[in-house]
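Forum: Protein Structure Q&A
Topic: Joint prediction for protein chains with partners

I've read a bunch of threads here and the consensus seems to be that you should model interacting components together rather than docking separate models afterwards. I'd like to see that in practice. Below is the full input, 556 residues plus whatever partners are listed. Could one of the regulars post the assembled result?
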Amino acid sequence: MAKSAEELNKALADAVVDMDEDLVADLANEVVDNGYDALNAIDQGLAKGMDEAGKLFEEEEYFVPELLMCSDAVNTGIDILKPHIHMEAAGEKHKIVVGVIEGDTHDIGKNLVKVMLSSANFDVIDAGRDVPPAVFVDTAVKEGAQIIMIAALMTTTMDKIGDTINLIKERGLEGKIKVVIGGAPISPAFAKKVGADAYSINANAAVRIAREMLNC
Amino acid sequence: MSDTMTGRERLLKALKGEPTDRPSVISACQYATYELMDAVGASWPEAHRDAELMATLSGKGGAEVIGLDAIRAPYCQTIEAEALGAKIKSGGKTHIPSIAEHPYKVDDVPEFPDDFLTRGRVPVAVKAVSLMKEKYGDQVLVMGGIGGPFSIANSLIGITPFLKAMFKTPDKIQPFLEMGYQAALTFGKAYIEAGADAIVIEDMMASLDMISPKNYRQLAQPYEKKLIADLGVPVILHICGKLDKVMLDIADTGCAGISVESAVNIPAAKAAYKEKGIRLPIIGDISPSGVLLNGTPDEIKDAVHDALARGVDIISPGCAAAPSTPLANLKAMVEGAKDA
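Posted by a regular:
Agreed with the consensus. Here's the joint model:
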């Protein structure tokens, strides 16, 4: 017997939490074959699963590798479902630029933030790793993004974050482009010192912060 | 009160849990800062690839200018990866080198090169240690820094592919862990031969910020333990971030001291160690991105006193000092220990 859309969405969420990429692919195909709403399957299935995985991460049940596996499952599902989304239903998404600061090539945290934001329905522009301050600002301006999220994983590279924020001020973009920073060496005190708009303790918190900043 | 012990005596005693004239202060991870470079006339990027400059910046800078009880080289964690084929991007004057391209893919089978000790910056760091030992060896402890096997293995294929492979194809990461162990042991032994009194293992990727306690116990801790046994000198193990659930496993590695950040609940770890009869000094945990970077010298002295009150045995920044850290703040760590 064919499953209902709700049942499939629930199964998708569970498969994401269980890190079962193959099952996610099967279920996403089932959504498509049954002609169910693909956007709904992303929102109510994949994103819900990732949200749950994020909670398990905050509870220290899941760690970074588990989140990576969950995010792979989400991406597999999105790849299958995306061509079947009716664009007019999707509406306009808020854009966010993410990247790792110059000198730092540790992109794991940035990748997690990216997948959490994407599954929360933001349009994420990935500036990559080892990103100079000017590239962050130029990318945000070009893409019309209101938020830049910068990761640093080393105490030796985090100084460049302040340069990025100063550049935003120099170009008169203060308030128009907000900066959220995070990563192992970053502290709320450091964020305050360099003038960041917010400090995000982890990938899950980044979604909450973005929603608050953009009122969505 | 003025010091009655050399830094070397003080730190060796502190590592053994014996009484000292005052608390010992080191920097388990790198401590080169812009102001320190100016003070000694040796700067990045040249100091990464020139043994004399490295020895001046680390040796003179650490022993004479800051007044640490131990001096160490090098500054970054990319030397092993570079020697094993990684492409490195210079950090210029302001930053440490970083890995531009990892040398292997998960499916590769790596082979440890016989000429590892002649590759890249390996001979530079080894030579710097011998120069520092010659000049400062009777005053301070001279330490050689290596990566932990788990962290080196990560740097060979990249963190994300590595962590995914831990789940999908665990067999494929074993050769990289073996290679990480080989590189760390070979590098460490060369430091010891060059005169190093102690080794610092920086196993930053073995943190619970990155992996689960189960992963740590299966993939990181056994290699740390084997490496420490095979090095045969006092080893300080530094791991960043959260560690509360594995502090007993860390003690089981046989390290002479564990260097931690303020993310670790030190009183709880001390209590657990006491209950089990474990005498492992805890090194830390002055926040390199907090008070050490932004605080005043008086605030840093307070942070030192607070760390000692929480059970920290040897004072150190919790991780690498940010290069823009004021020199006065590094010195204030030592002053804080003097008036403790």
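The domain at 7-338 of chain B is CATH 3.20.20.210 (TIM Barrel).
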